[in-house]
Amino acid sequence: MSPRKTLNIGLVGCGFMGRAHSSAFLRVNQFFDCDAQPVLKAVCARNPAAAEAFAANWGYQTFTTDWRDLVARRDIDLIDIASPNDTHAEIAIAAAEAGKMVMCEKPLGRNVAETRKIVAAVEAAGRANMVWYNYRRIPAVSLARRLIDEGKLGRVFHYRAKFLQDWTISADLPQGGAGAWRLDASVAGSGVAGDLLAHCIDTAMWLNGPIDTVTAMTETFVRERTHAATGKRQEVTIDDAAAFLARFANRSLATFEATRYARGHKAQYTFEINGETASISWDLHDLNRLQYFDHRDEDQVRGWRSLHVTDSGHPYMKRWWVPGLQIGYEHSFVHQVADFLESLSSGEPASPTFREAMATDLVTDAVLRSARSGRWEEVER
Amino acid sequence: MSPRKTLNIGLVGCGFMGRAHSSAFLRVNQFFDCDAQPVLKAVCARNPAAAEAFAANWGYQTFTTDWRDLVARRDIDLIDIASPNDTHAEIAIAAAEAGKMVMCEKPLGRNVAETRKIVAAVEAAGRANMVWYNYRRIPAVSLARRLIDEGKLGRVFHYRAKFLQDWTISADLPQGGAGAWRLDASVAGSGVAGDLLAHCIDTAMWLNGPIDTVTAMTETFVRERTHAATGKRQEVTIDDAAAFLARFANRSLATFEATRYARGHKAQYTFEINGETASISWDLHDLNRLQYFDHRDEDQVRGWRSLHVTDSGHPYMKRWWVPGLQIGYEHSFVHQVADFLESLSSGEPASPTFREAMATDLVTDAVLRSARSGRWEEVER
Amino acid sequence: MSPRKTLNIGLVGCGFMGRAHSSAFLRVNQFFDCDAQPVLKAVCARNPAAAEAFAANWGYQTFTTDWRDLVARRDIDLIDIASPNDTHAEIAIAAAEAGKMVMCEKPLGRNVAETRKIVAAVEAAGRANMVWYNYRRIPAVSLARRLIDEGKLGRVFHYRAKFLQDWTISADLPQGGAGAWRLDASVAGSGVAGDLLAHCIDTAMWLNGPIDTVTAMTETFVRERTHAATGKRQEVTIDDAAAFLARFANRSLATFEATRYARGHKAQYTFEINGETASISWDLHDLNRLQYFDHRDEDQVRGWRSLHVTDSGHPYMKRWWVPGLQIGYEHSFVHQVADFLESLSSGEPASPTFREAMATDLVTDAVLRSARSGRWEEVER
Amino acid sequence: MSPRKTLNIGLVGCGFMGRAHSSAFLRVNQFFDCDAQPVLKAVCARNPAAAEAFAANWGYQTFTTDWRDLVARRDIDLIDIASPNDTHAEIAIAAAEAGKMVMCEKPLGRNVAETRKIVAAVEAAGRANMVWYNYRRIPAVSLARRLIDEGKLGRVFHYRAKFLQDWTISADLPQGGAGAWRLDASVAGSGVAGDLLAHCIDTAMWLNGPIDTVTAMTETFVRERTHAATGKRQEVTIDDAAAFLARFANRSLATFEATRYARGHKAQYTFEINGETASISWDLHDLNRLQYFDHRDEDQVRGWRSLHVTDSGHPYMKRWWVPGLQIGYEHSFVHQVADFLESLSSGEPASPTFREAMATDLVTDAVLRSARSGRWEEVER
Lengths: 381, 381, 381, 381
Fold this sequence. Notes:
homotetramer, six-stranded parallel β-sheet, globular
């Protein structure tokens, strides 16, 4: 057993995603035997106390309140961006220009212009890069992809996805500030479109190919909120809910929906694909299961199969416990790091690269354009 | 116990729906104690052998191959139309003009022009009339309406419905003829729009009020089929699949979808409604259950409740067996007849009347218009 | 189409089961094309007003308050016993001695001595006979039997069944009288053992063969109740709950349980069978579904299949509606009558005959003996 | 933030449980802010290469092949026993006598005599101790306990539990050796009784109090296997399956079952409790959910609630991600360590202590005695 190469990480952002990434960097080689070992060199957050506490908690060697410190350090190999959306472009571009590998939370930019700039810079740098569309690496979702690649579905007729939450229904919820930047369009870029639909779109294109055209609607149910920092009432400009119809390049039809106003759902991300010979569906609220229907089964015992995706033959699962024992949400991040480390060894880019992730932002953009125009809009390429 | 008044029925059509209606007329007073007793006077079908066998099976006193015979008979009170869509207008109008009560399968006409004529004639006649949107009378669906009427949901944000089937995927399936008239646009008027979406739309407006605007897409996956009667290849002109986005008058948003190309689903009609304080969902494949989420529940025990709608306090259920024992699809027709008979006693029209049912055809029309125009279309009133 | 032979029915009992049987006799030939047609000749009930109303409701030609009238009539072919358990023996024996065909609700007798006498008399008469273990004829349960007969399960290791209700939890519920004779041991013979376990045992032996030995416990949770008729407090002597372990002749192991004290369950009859190559489970609360697991499936898509038992290839279902549309509890009785009529044509007895049904009473008897002795008890043959 | 005290760990065993414990020690303070910090000082395994690799993987400072080294070290505070059952007694007693804190996998001993000796030694030592009945700490199970403590269930009538696996069905599976010691009675003490029933019993008594008496059966389906090490055929002496009926001290009735021959189930541990006013059920295969039925709900909306136990108000969940996102099996071990560390601060023992865990071994013993005697057996105290 030769010692592993180190991969020195500089993390920007110590919120929910900063925790999920840190956990993944620390655990990956306890379960996946990769050639490289992430080392938590430094973390950056605007609030120094928060940065210090985060560093202590996760074992980062140092902390800073200026992300430029991370980019400037010679001993940092990879900048991981887990800060709010309005910071992505500046940090990613600087990191790329400094020759760092880059990872970034989704969506890349607040709008297509930002996204294109980010991708151009990262591609010019030519270093390994990846966007955290972690749901691809939930074993049940990875299994869905495998089954499709094996041709089990045949021609696809339908795709449908939704991402339902209910956390912004109360009109008393403030917007803006550290805790609620996702409600502030100037920071987030959009509401559920970039936050939730983006996940639906990324998975959809990964499983079913490019989307050509869309027609969409968006709605803001609560039109005015108090700003968390200023205490002032101000207009809400994000989309609280969004839905769209789409046509894929493979001629299949789709419906997509995302909202933060679906009472009873905390993070119900679901998708279903109907093919000529088989269908698949999945629900994040039961993330270890994949529903599978195979029309080629003998007539009288044909039915939807509830696959408990915990067997050693299922994607990633051999590395964890024993068949029947479930894993959770956070494991998808471990898998994503494992695949990234594997990509460094193989030279084959880990998916989705920034370029691949840009395709999702382009669909989101078409959705928002259509919601304004009231027409079908083409997705840019 | 005074003897019941008779209600003499003349049925047109002896297919699937003819059977369901006949069963309901025969059973209604074994379980519901109504003032009137349907009497199966006569049945009409184009094929005399089929008509005779049907009459023998269900106890119709006579049969005929010409529906005009039924309309002409003095001893028939009610004409029930269960024949293909291209016959609805002519029969309904003649029956109305003859002063008969009329019941009709959905959709009313093949297009809005037909529907308007039918409704005008029936309303001019001023007799009791009803369209067989039977799903309203499944106890779980009736319970949904009751919960909404009680105000349990609060302001509604979202409605979503779909009706998924898979029976036309095979390209070898013929179109046209007695067995496959639903694939022939000249007979059916449309494909899934009038057949399946119509059910979704009727329930939706019954539960959530009028729909204002829609944007839609339709698709024909198999473009050419052999005609069942002529053996010739011909273009398929129905919509195999349809989906639309909608805005209700109450400002809630909706997605609707219907298809006959969703492998794994035979008759999966589902809907979900998300309100500010509660949500509801239902699935025809588990028709005795209603899913209910109430946000006012104590935090730690808040969850989706699976209501097994078989208790004596649930709509219609006191009349059947004992709590816990399920009923089936066909019982919804019994309930609809019971409500119709009750309406004759009370003078309060049984819902949906022809006028109410026309609202559904108007939405379907807007959907088909939008699928052609690529724009949002207003629903006519 | 030659006219059907008539089968003249005399029904004893007009409670819940009387309704279910009557419904089945009336409907059978609307859906199943049998050689014989049941004719509702006469019904008997102790209360004349109830008997008259029941006759009017279901179309019985006459009614009586003395079952001996039915047995004495030459024009009655079959006596159907749906009255409380304490009447079964006397009526069945008299009917048999009068040369009638006999059908009887379960359990046959209040105890093994009664059951043996009944079976001896009916067998001596040599006429067609059947006991209403209707759950065998729910399509999903019949499908389970078919899959087992096809050898899909291989060697069976485990069987487990339970029947959970909650209707007697309240200590205020009276015992005895017309509405509550199931709580009166002198009428019912036993509590849940004969009422609920009997169903579990019948299905189990039908699917998995004879039971050799059992060890059991019973409990009476509410020890004293007011008698419905006398208003006096008296001891409760039935078993409120019963559970037993069993060994089948095929060496498989079993657990059985029945209770009326399981809050949240109205009629949750479930069973599961685990074989070497496949497993099956079923739940009366979702009676149209059968769960099926086949170990021979390809590894990565191996899972429990939810069979929606509504396809035309499923037992009995071709006769009803179209695939995807559910039937209910009462249809099992229609199927049982259809099979009985078929048996009259074929000469092959319809299952379970009185002799076959006796096997269930013998297991129930061993269960009650074991509950008293605290030991394993052999099942008599 | 004062620095945490260290708690130096010496782990014995580097199999499945060794991994689960190590993961928990490492993660606990990343999510739970405890006063003490576990430090992985040393690991012991018989195979030196395995021990070395394990130490490298998890960050143990040293490794050894002799557990006595760990007990002898002054700088180790706690001995954690995760080795096969036949080693528990010797190690636990030595560790206790050396004044160490002790944690041990379940069951404690291979038989009651061993268990009693272990408990006597550990209690004499007077140091903190805990047995790894980790399922108590799955949030849904902890929530069940909380609801019971709040009195939501009222008087309990029924308890039922089962633990179903299918991994030993193949007769080709060897017994004995490192990989299959669970099939070797001389090492494991018993088969499913100590391995799987033990979990069911522990949870049951934690939720519902002591068990008084049991009647049981066990079975060995495959009677002879090849020994993994010697290659010789030899008799199988473990119990492949076990089931028992029980009476709790609170007069409720129970059924329990465990097997490794239930095709289709990998680790399906389920329990259900029926109380006068509410019922609860749970399934390890959907470990983030708790099913809850409350009879006090309004009639028409009364139903089983599927609680997605991922909200911040649910046990332990505030420490993890955001509502709606699931955790997995391994997190129960983190919770158990967190509770243990908390107990060191509070002085209140973490449950279950060795003494508490002995109660489970006493029930298991009664089960095995009953399986031999064929009678009801009292549980020792």
